[in-house]
Amino acid sequence: MIEVAAALSVANAAFNAIKAGVDRGKELHEMAGALSKFFDANETINEARIKNQETSATVKFLAGKSVEEEAMELALRKREMDMKYKALRELFIYSGNGETFKDFERQRRIIRQRRYEAARTVAKRRSDMIDFVIILVGIGIATGVLVLMATFVNAASADQHFYL
Question: How does pLDDT run across 73-87, given as a tens digit for each residue?
Answer without folding.
Answer: 778 888 888 899 999
